[in-house]
Amino acid sequence: MSAAIDRLITAKAGGPLAPVADDAAFLRRIHLDLVGNIPTSVQTRTFLRDKSAGKRSRVIDQLLASKNFAEHWTDRLSVMLLERQQLSQVPDDEWRAYLKKSLQDQPRWNVLIGEMIAATGKGESRAAMRFLGKGNHHRLTEDISRLFLGRDLECARCHDHPSVDDWTQAHYWGLYAYLNQTRLATHSGEKRSYFVENLATKKVEFQSVFFDDQEDTGPRLPGGKEIPIPTFDEHQGFEKPAADGLPAVPKFRPRERLARDLASGRNNLFVRNSINRFWKLMMGRGFWMPLDQAHSENPPSHPELLDLLERQFVAHQFDIKWLLRQIAFSASYQRSSRLPPGETEVEPESYRVAHLKGLTPEQLLHSILRATGNEEVRAQESTGEEKFDHRGYFTGTNTGLPTAYADIRTIFVETFGQPSGVPEDDFAPGLNKALFLMNDRLVLHWLQPRKHNLASRLAQMKSPDAIAKELYCAVLSRLPEEDEQQELSTYLEAHPDRRRAGLSDLIWALLTSTEFRLNH
Amino acid sequence: MPHPGSTSCQSPFHALSRRRVLGLLGGSIGFGSLVQPAIAREIAKKNKQVCLIWLDGGISQFESWHPLPGSQFAGPFRSIPTSIPGIHFSELLPHTARIAHKISIIRSMCTKDPNHSTGVPRIQRGDPIDRGVDYPYLGSAVAKLLGPADPELPPYVWIKPGNGGFIAREAGFLGAEYGALALGDGKAPIHIHRPESISAQQDEARQILRERANQRFKSYRGSSEIDAYETSYRMARQLMARKDIFDDTRIDPGDRERYGSHPLGRHILRARHLLESGVRFVKVNSYHWDTHSDNFNMSQRLIPQIDQPFAALIDDLDERGMLDDVLVVLMSEFGRTPIINSRLGRDHWPDCWSLALAGCGIRRGAIVGNSDRDGVFVDGTGYDIGDLFHTIFSVLGIDPRRKKYGHKGQKLAIAHDECGPIREVMT
User: Fold this and answer.
1) In chain B, N or C terminus with fewer CB closer than 10 Å?
2) How many domains does chain B have?
3) What whole-number distance in Å separates Cα of residue B114 and Cα of residue B122?
4) What is the pLDDT of residues A400-410, one digit of tens each?
């Protein structure tokens, strides 16, 4: 499959390709993409020394099998699916534990999405119900369409889409008809909520704001057949009677049906959208962009490749790791982000050069902690005594330093992430983000020598060459160039009186460089 | 425009940064082809600034700019004479009535969208013809079209209740760098302050190291992401050098009294300071004007909170000789219904509403347009939001018929193609 990816990308390249990325760039990229963190200085040095064949493939497989894979992809999928909204039928840790478990071994994307759409809150996968939020029918219609079919149907609630002929109002209401029986109900004994479905008795009616005709539809996927709503004799429509404050369970449950029909190999909109989203996360750009504009006037850049991936992803039972592995093994993924000689600009859809991807707030935090040698922060738990005042941390009324990892993470997400309800975007530099990395007390605190952190390790080294090597391997995951070594020696010689501070300056300068801020 | 601090500071960093910024601006207007008229136009635009005061939810025109006492839908308030002979405002606007001859009122706004969700973005984007892109809000548009008035300050500052930060989403397709620096409750974010542990000298040294690292990374890539990242640091440093402009201790207690100690008063006073310091575009937001119920009590409470600081702002700008260069816009996303609902509220009414303009090429004392007898519909020509945007751009020295945005190789109109400036309100 990786060979086919390369063949089909090369066939449409339309110009010289960038050479393969060097070992250091590859190692950093694959670590960030698969486990959400830069490699350690030791990992980098070991990999650079390793002269054996097949070392890249071995690293890919090790990372895919590591527990950090599940940890990182929990972040990625959670942000993709919830867009940082606090939809709280389920506590955050339960939701994360659920995703993490699903991502171990052979994670199957259709199963995961099916569980979320069909979730009732019963049994082991109670946490899956978090995706449904409060069960708002319109939000769910729009989110499911956008996230799983690649169609931003918001406009189509009131009329056919004004500029996209493929998208009609009937598509919107067909999806809606799968969801409009769903609601939350509280179990009288357990005092907790479950998603239940009412008995559907008729189609959904809708009307365009532009025309007078009344239309109706039963549950129907775009491009699929409408599902007839069954009729039952009185009292015959239920499988189980009402009990414990929960209503009777109808025999016909359209949301459960949606989970089966949507997250299925027979639904090519779902399969292609899934591939496009995973491809984007790895390659920095989807076959079509924006991700939620899948329609005939915005065709994919590589239709043949997409078709092939579609067939193979289904044949491999939606195995996420299989898909990521095929991409990671390809030369197209492993290309350098440096422009081919003589080129100044490259068409982004050609993939001739690796795309620069911004680090997510989580990747940035984890990488800063690893680079500066403060990884123990990730294990710091909340003492549970007093809640850390995040807003005050930014406005200056809270002058304390957060210690719990959860609070630190929140501060990074608030600074570097998108607001709640907005999809994660590409690299977006900002004044406030620059101010944060320049002046944040916590970040500067990590640059002070303590225990075995980087500043302390560097302070114990004598030779500028050794310092340069360790600094560059730890922060930028590569060895320094000659001019960089020279610059460092000169800098330290120029500031003999404040060597310790000088070392912190050097760490800071690399941490705030574009090279660190991007997955390149 | 007085820029204390920027002219007195002779540090090499400032000189360097100014040169670099000029270089950037040169890139965008093309130094190679720079001819005299272009320079003249640039100079004319140089001092133009904007203050947009946004009353979110919709101020009632009946209880403010367009009282119709004795009409079918009039509320309980009297109307009072203003400094323009024959023109009356609601009695809730005594301060503004006194300076009415310095401002203009448009009483014939006729826009389309009665919903908030799409109303606010639609209006603040000027509702251009849909070209499938996210247009910028006015502040981001002006930041793009005129650039910063002072290269060391962000062109677009937004003063709002609640949280601050850097808010990129208003920039639309222009991209994050044209977003707003938002001051939560008028205060600068804490990260504008360099911790004491880092001396100015050390900061300078570490920045040079960072810049060199960026240059090396860029030399093989030439990517706009890298420039944008560098720009964000440059903006951050420039802002830090001027953080005194956010300093509350520098506010004159007499001013505070004149503007009022409520948030809107404090925020409009802060806006005046930022305009004096050279920020190109300042937006001040006030929320909770959506008087679906209890419109009259709420108006009685809310409208004095805009009356006092708005009049003070106009007076101050006028006294300082700034009013000819600073455009002040006071508006909401729509007006309120003539019909008073069962909860003694007025609902959303885009069909006929009013707004206030002042300064910078806006006539003094012009009252434009009228409604029918009961204030239901516009009598004569109604103006859409596109017309207002044409007017705003025109008085700022930007020709909305000729100036276009460039986006992905496309030329996009900056305002609705089928609208035009409201000449009656312009000098």
Assistant:
1) C
2) 3
3) 11
4) 899 999 999 99
Close Cβ partners of A56 (under 8 Å, ≥ 6 residues apart): A23, A26, A30, A334
With contacts defined as CB-CB under 8 Å, which chain A residues touch B236?
Answer: 431, 434-435, 438
**DSSP 8-state secondary structure symbol assigned to residue B147:** -
Cα–Cα distance, A207 to A170 (Å, whole number): 10
* Residue tagged 């440059």 (tokens): B234
Number of residues written out for chain A = 520
Tell me the pLDDT band of B25, cut-offs 50, 70 and 90: very low
User: Which ipTM did the prediction report?
Assistant: 0.90
Please give the Cα distance from B235 to A274 (Å, whole number): 39
Kindly list the residues from chain B whose CB atom is less than 8 angstroms away from the CB atom of residue A345: 222
What is the 8-class DSSP label of residue B136? P
Q: Establish, for the pair of chains A and B, how many residue pairs have beta carbons separated by less than 8 Å.
A: 141
Shared-domain flag, residues B306 and B384: yes
Structural domain boundaries, residue B26: 1-46
Nearest to A431 among B132, B226, B236 (CB): B236
Query: How many residues comprise chain B?
Result: 427
Same domain for A249 and A365: no
Q: Is the pLDDT of residue A11 over 50?
A: yes
pLDDT, tens digit, 9 for 90 and up, residues A237-249: 999 999 999 999 9
pTM over 0.90: no
Residues 6+ apart with CB under 8 A from B312: B95, B255, B258, B259, B268, B269
Bridge partners (DSSP) of residue B370 are: B379
| Nearest-angstrom CA–CA distance, A222 and A174 | 8
What is the bridge-based pairing of β-strands B180-184 and B156-160?
parallel
Share the mean pLDDT of chain A.
93
Residues B317 and B332 in one domain: yes
Residue A474 falls within a domain, yes or no?
Answer: yes
- Tokens of residue B209, six digits: 């190291």
